[in-house]
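Why should sequence recovery work at all? Because a backbone constrains its sequence more than one might expect. Tight turns favour small or flexible residues, buried strands favour hydrophobic ones, and helices have their own preferences. The token representation captures these environments compactly. In the example below, the structure is given first.
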């Protein structure tokens, strides 16, 4: 029998605020000594009263708007009761009945990137968002031998839980969804989205059913996956495991699973709780949350243009390929750096010239800029810190465009610019790197090359076209790489054809 996987995703995103959700303790817990960022509120001491973190609420609303959600104008907080050592109060302050954001959707690119076919239109799928609500994070347990240690630095950090409808149909679609969500929170600047550091944690809920059926199968949940690859691998494994059970006529149990990355298998952690097990009831120590229209409008104005919208605009306005547009929008800082180059290129230039310059800028960024940032161990998000300014890259592109220098020379110049921040024109002048485009001088170079390589000339005249590249290389070498390659090609071919006659 053929089966279909049905996946809904629960994702927890730690919001990048300075203080915790309901107290003034620092939320910067990563790398801190255990249990230093704590107070009576986040430790759940009797009589300690919580206070709402406004910045966390703003960040949550911004994510909700980016996910095309409706924003609740009136909501309230609830206690979600459960007893684990990493939850000092014995309950978590959360939202259940009325989430802050709900009924949204996100478009994700589900193209099979393994084909490398970037010339076709991307295939986008809409995944519905059921809810996105605020809550507080738990502490962190560390197990050493037969002992367990708890660090409450993370307890109370603002956490946004985002829940999809069961619209995901493969491990690759789950990967695409989480990649898109991670990109959104980074674009908005509300979270690092760093899964390895726990800033984004996801829990797929999945089941299998006969293809064509509308009924859901028995659901399992895979907890706390810490990388995009782990998500894809865990889902793919679980699909195979459940399919084997069903083929043998065995039942799938509703359980909570963990992912053993070393062995590449899922492992049972516990039986799955139901909502009623948490005994939700309104939080008596916090007032209801009211979201006014003026506040909502102000947050809409702060929202940046997101990656998919930028990709569409780059392809429409600049004629970039799907590949180029995707690479340039992978990080908001890179996209904005690229647009600064294009802004310089667009000054009083006709549309076709702007498109050509935008394509040149895209090529330079994806090759030389990315290459040197990687070599210097500079993250893409730090592109604004490199010594080369966007206007300087445009100057370099202009020097190539005007044939003042050739592309090979431009690469040498760019590396010096990257290390020193020097202006490209100054480098050209100080090092005498201007391109040789004097036709008389290049005719003399071509004549010398032909005279010095009679065997290769005979081979070319005998029909061996590939030898032409060798002769061009010799001419470029004779000009120390500064010869106008296009002009050398033309003059060399004319001279050789003259020999044929």
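From this structural description, the recovered sequence reads:
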């Amino acid at each position: 029998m053929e089966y279909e996987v049905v996946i809904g995703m629960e994702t927890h995103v730690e919001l990048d605020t300075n203080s915790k959700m309901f107290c003034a303790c620092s939320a910067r817990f990563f790398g801190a000594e255990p249990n230093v960022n704590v107070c009576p509120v986040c430790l759940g001491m009797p009589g300690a009263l919580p206070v709402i973190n406004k910045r966390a609420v703003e960040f949550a609303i911004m994510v909700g708007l980016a996910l095309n959600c409706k924003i609740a104008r009136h909501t309230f907080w609830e206690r979600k009761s459960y007893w684990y050592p990493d939850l000092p109060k014995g309950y978590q302050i959360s939202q259940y009945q009325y989430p802050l954001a709900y009924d949204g959707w996100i478009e994700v690119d589900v193209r099979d990137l393994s084909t490398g076919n970037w010339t076709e239109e991307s295939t986008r799928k809409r995944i519905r968002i059921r809810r996105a609500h605020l809550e507080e994070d738990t502490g962190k347990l560390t197990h050493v031998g037969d002992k367990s240690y708890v660090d409450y630095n993370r307890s109370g950090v603002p956490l946004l839980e985002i829940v999809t409808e069961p619209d995901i149909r493969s491990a690759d679609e789950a990967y695409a969804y989480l990649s898109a969500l991670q990109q959104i929170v980074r674009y908005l600047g509300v979270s690092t989205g760093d899964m390895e550091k726990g800033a984004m944690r996801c829990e797929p809920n999945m089941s299998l059913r006969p293809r064509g059926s509308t009924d859901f199968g028995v659901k399992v949940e895979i907890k706390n996956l810490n990388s995009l690859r782990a998500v894809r691998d865990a889902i793919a494994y679980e699909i195979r495991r459940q399919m084997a059970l069903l083929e043998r006529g065995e039942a799938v149990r509703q359980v909570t699973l963990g992912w053993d990355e070393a062995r590449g298998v899922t492992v049972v952690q516990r039986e799955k709780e139901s909502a009623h097990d948490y005994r939700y009831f309104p939080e008596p120590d916090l007032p209801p949350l009211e979201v006014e229209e003026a506040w909502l409008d102000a947050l809409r104005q702060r929202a940046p243009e997101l990656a998919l919208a930028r990709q569409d605009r780059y392809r429409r306005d600049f004629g970039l390929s799907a590949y180029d547009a995707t690479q340039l929008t992978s990080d908001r800082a890179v996209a904005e750096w690229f647009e600064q180059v294009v802004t310089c290129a667009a000054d009083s230039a006709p549309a076709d010239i702007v498109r050509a310059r935008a394509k040149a800028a895209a090529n330079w960024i994806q090759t030389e800029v990315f290459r040197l940032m990687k070599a210097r161990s500079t993250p893409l998000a730090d592109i604004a810190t490199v010594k080369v300014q966007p206007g300087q890259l445009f100057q370099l592109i202009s020097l190539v465009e005007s044939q003042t220098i050739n592309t090979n020379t431009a690469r040498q110049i760019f590396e010096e610019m990257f290390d020193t921040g020097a202006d490209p024109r100054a480098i050209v002048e100080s090092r005498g790197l201007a391109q040789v485009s004097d036709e008389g001088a290049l005719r003399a170079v071509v004549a010398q090359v032909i005279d010095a390589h009679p065997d290769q000339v005979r081979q070319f005249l005998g029909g061996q076209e590939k030898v032409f590249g060798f002769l061009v290389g010799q001419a470029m070498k004779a000009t120390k790489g500064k010869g106008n390659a296009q002009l050398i090609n033309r003059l060399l071919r004319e001279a050789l054809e003259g020999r044929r006659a």
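A few observations help interpret the result. The chain has three domains: 7-206+268-295, 305-431, 439-500.
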